[in-house]
Amino acid sequence: MKKWLCLLLVIPMLALAACTEESGNPESEVGQQQQQQQETAESPDNELYIFTAWPAFYVDEAIFEKQVGQFIKKKFPDITLKHVAWNDGSRYEDLIAKGTIPDIIFDDVGRNTYRQVRRFKLEYDMTKLIKKYNFDTSKLNPADMQYSINTSDGKLYSLPFNTNDYVLVYNKDLFDKFGVDYPKDGMTWDEAYELAKRLTRQEGDMTYKGFQMNPAHYMRFNQLAEPALDPNEDKASMVSDNWLKIVDNIRRFYEIPGNQLVKTHQFAQGNVAMIIDSLENAMEVIAQNPDINFDVSAVPVFPEAPKSKFQPSTNGMFITNQSDNKDLAFQVIAYLLSPEVQTELSRQGVVPVLNDPEVRAAYGQGIPEWQGKHVQSIFYLDGAKPPARKPNLTYVYANTDLVWNSISQESKDSQTALRIANEAMDKAIQETKAIESEGGISPHQ
Known about the structure:
Elements lengths: L1 H7 L17 H14 L7 E6 L8 H15 L4 E6 L6 H7 L5 E5 H9 L9 H6 L9 H9 L7 E7 L1 E6 H6 L11 H11 L1 E3 L2 E3 L6 H6 L20 H14 L19 E5 H9 L6 E4 L10 E2 L3 E7 L6 H11 L2 H10 L8 H5 L20 E2 L16 H9 L5 H24 L8
Parallel strand pairs: 1-2, 1-3, 10-12
Antiparallel strand pairs: 3-11, 4-11, 5-8, 5-9, 6-7
Helix pairs in contact: 1-12, 2-4, 16-17
């Protein structure tokens, strides 16, 4: 089971858990970086330095080698490959302080393009290299590509590498016990709600819960692609009719008597019928109880978006502005996005960003425990495309946690909870603008 879990740790962690807190003054750090780069000799033409900030499990060199290193060495045998993973001794500021700037960075695109790559002046527009090497970005998943576009100020600072999809996991034994039909791909939220009501019950000392999901994640990556930030102005945008629909939908599940919110990890105890979580988290939950009789299905949908699953949490590959080997770095990135590599990653359980039916068909084939499961349900729906936003506007993190805390802890109605979060985000935007104007680092990103 440990071996299986290791294989399954291939899906990006959610942006909610992205790299930890920053420290130091960015102006002094950038100045130090520039001085030390002048003192550092140029890298050899055949040396490539990769820094993996996210996914975090690349701190295990064996996992990095299995998913990245082996492919590079096979295709580019003359390359001297250096890999450093993010940890307490090798953070962005540590690398810069040493004057060791990587050629390629792997990191969360949706949040850490702002918090890390741009903060340390590492961003580089890959547009010219894309044209030079005739790389077709249209072959990549549109939802994942949209994250790169949205965070690049009208340029292209990253290309997606892998994605973290949400999936519905259900306990077949509980459905059988209570004579309820299994979830089906294309099921609506209303249908899921009816299942949750039928499966939430008390029998003796045992409470059975019909459905569980993290409400903040549900809102942050919502399937209607409703923006938390205004697309054209520096202000929040969480008081729309769609936001009210999104919030009212999820809160009704936890208003079912007996179905109060618990962590999805309780699924492993055998008394939760359905959970929705990222594939990585879901598989960690299942690994806690190897005997659980589970299967997977596509997530429920809204009638107005019948083919949309959640927005993805995308990990991307960045070439640094300071790299001396940009051409080589791009050729490596292009190869990691080739059908050859993406197919093998798909076999290992990595959700591919290559929009190719054959690549998707290979998903999970190398994992014995996946055999017989409906893993192709993962691809039944299309990822909702993250909402586009005008370049150079201020970014703050969507405060969906505040929405749910206002509901669950303070008993606020949905409209009031959204208004509270909207006001907090408006304040965060203004504070961030003031902090950044003075060269500081905003805690709201």
